[in-house]
Amino acid sequence: MTEVAKPFDLDGIYRTHVRLVGRWVVRLGGPALDVEDTVQEVFTTAYARLSSFRGNSSMATWLFGITDKVVRHRRRKQRWWRWLSGTADQTAGVLPAPGPDPLQAFEQVQAARSVYRVLDKLRESDRRVLILFELEELSAEQVAELLGISAANARLRRHRARARFLRAHQREYPVVQAAETGRLSKRCRNVTP
User: Fold this and answer.
1) Domain 94-193: which topology?
2) What is the pTM of this model?
3) Contacting residues for 92 by C-beta, under 8 A, at least 6 apart
4) Domain 1-93, CATH among 1.10.1740.10, 2.70.40.10, 3.40.50.1370, 1.20.1270.220
5) How far is CA 127 from CA 27, 89, 108, 165, in A?
6) pLDDT digits over 130-181, tens only?
């Protein structure tokens, strides 16, 4: 028995998955990425490739693959742009502080920048796993489905990525006199997994 290809409800796919794709873009791209443009590019790419969707995985898994590729492409372009035009602070400008308390908003932005600064030093595979587990708070089974691996492999990758993140974080933000004082800086306590 051969199956007849069903037409896809493009509006339904968008409505069902736009928030999820938006969260992935925010998490994978970091604070400097234009979320709306990236989400639009993800869905434009998905619509153009919809005929190639075979249904071997869920629509969310397929969209995650597209989102991951689009975000990686945009991040590569940003790195080239920063290299050609100056530092990230010079090209990114000032980020608006969302919320009633400007000091807390500033601290959150600084913490996010420091986390993403360390994440940017990791391999893409480690970065992706940490974002899905730690920021998106997905289960091992959900991460495994999105990445096309087993749940045990996802947990193993998370363990190894955490260790590499911690080493990279310690290199980027060395704790001054932590052994002598017995205290970590506030930034380290907020970032350490």
Assistant:
1) Arc Repressor Mutant, subunit A (1.10.10)
2) 0.53
3) 32
4) 1.10.1740.10
5) 10, 22, 20, 9
6) 999 988 889 999 999 999 999 999 999 999 999 999 999 898 888 744 443 4
